[in-house]
Amino acid sequence: MGSNFRNLISQALLELKQPEVGEGKCVHSLMATASCSSCVDACPRQAWILDDSILGLDTSNCDGCGLCVPVCPEGAIQRLNEPHQCHWKGRDTAFLACERAMVSDVEGIIPCIHSIGIRDLLLLYRKGTKDIMITHGDCARCDRGNVHRLEHAVIRINRMLKDRNASPMRQHVLSSNKWLDNLKTTATANGQEIGRRSFLRRALGMAVTERSTEDKLSANGQAWSVPPGQILPSEKTDSMVPFVPVIDTNLCNGCDACVRLCPHDALMIDMCNVLDAKSYKITAENCSNCGLCIDGCEVGAISINMWTIPDQMRINLVQARCTACGADYHVPKESEKGENTLCRVCGIVNHYRNLYQVMD
């Protein structure tokens, strides 16, 4: 009886750790042919399954490590554990411990410290947390893979912060005993409980606070995740951002598919107010690296550069009228197709005279 009860409790706790996908947020719900496989590639146990028709989770293989959470470009996978935030020696500090470290029954324990990604760290930084206290197990021998993603994320964030003349985020890797001593000292000084019961009592409130923060950061107020570039300090322009969309003007045919597919308005059509001239406006800070623009581009004109300063912010378009069907169209001014007298549809079909029958 006791053994069966313990097994039921263990199974219930495992299910509580397993991720959930927010409805309507995954790129596969936005575009059936999306090529994103970030969660599949990150999972050390091959628990995520992606085929031509569905993205699913094999719960029998998932151990709740959370490594899929930070790699999802749209933040569609729900985070169930958060770092413990408090004041330590007068500074806002986040305490973070791997579940395989030698600590227990305290706040700040998550399945794997590397499930904390760039968006999580930037949200902490935006709230004033610039110090992270970490303790973890033996990552080199961990069956979840020899990963050091958290360290890499901190390094990349500090590169972007330095480019903005902002103070860096400091990471302190401690032994389990030292980490626990610091946490207990902090809890005593602040009059806080450190047991998990206090964490569970505040869990719902923490989740609501996090959602409201995301809503405030979101430019359109919808339920999309906030791209990391929008969370960065913005005192300086022309700074390094995580993801930079780039359009090859010699390949682009002006179909506007990228503009229609982008969920964060990183790519937009902008009126220049000069004889109704139009241009593609690229706002790299809004890019989440979802890849929908790349998937939707029929000529392969779009790529996304990582961790760089944008140098392409506007692409002027030239207007023309198709001599075959009479439809107005546009292409980049620098495009080799700029002198073409056929729109992109008539340019690839030979039934110009009947084309009006299938056009709006």
Task: Provide an overview of this structure.
There is one protein chain. This protein has 360 residues and is α/β, with parallel strands linked by helices. It has three domains: 1-79, 2-Layer Sandwich (Alpha-Beta Plaits), CATH 3.30.70.20; 81-205; 241-353, Alpha-Beta Plaits (2-Layer Sandwich), CATH 3.30.70. Helix content is 28%, strand content 19%. It is built from ten helices and 13 strands. The strands form four sheets. Strands 3, 4, 5, 6 and 7 form a five-stranded mixed sheet that branches. Strands 9-10-12-13 form a four-stranded antiparallel sheet. Strand 9 and strand 10 form a beta hairpin.
Give a nutshell description of this structure.
The protein has ten helices and 13 strands. It has 360 residues and is α/β, with parallel strands linked by helices.
How would you describe this structure in keywords?
Alpha-Beta Plaits; 5-stranded mixed β-sheet; single chain; 3 domains; 10 helices; 13 strands; 4-stranded antiparallel β-sheet; about 350 residues; alpha/beta
Main sheet record: 5 strands, mixed
Low-confidence stretches: 8-13, 196-214, 216-224
- What structural class is derived from the secondary structure elements? alpha/beta
Would you report the number of β strands? 13
Evaluate the radius of gyration. 24 Å
Order of helices and strands: HHHEEEEEHEHEHHHEHEEHEEE
Query: How much helicity do the residues have?
Result: 25-40%
| Global shape | elongated
How many domains?
A: 3
Strand percentage:
15-25%
> Mean pLDDT score, rounded?
80
Helix count, DSSP H or I runs of 4 or more residues: 10
N/C terminus separation: 70 Å
GO molecular function, one term: 4 iron, 4 sulfur cluster binding
InterPro entries: 4Fe4S_Fe-S-bd (IPR017896), 4Fe4S_Fe_S_CS (IPR017900), PSI_iron-sulfur_center (IPR050157)
Pfam families: Fer4, Fer4_7
Protein name: 4Fe-4S ferredoxin-type domain-containing protein
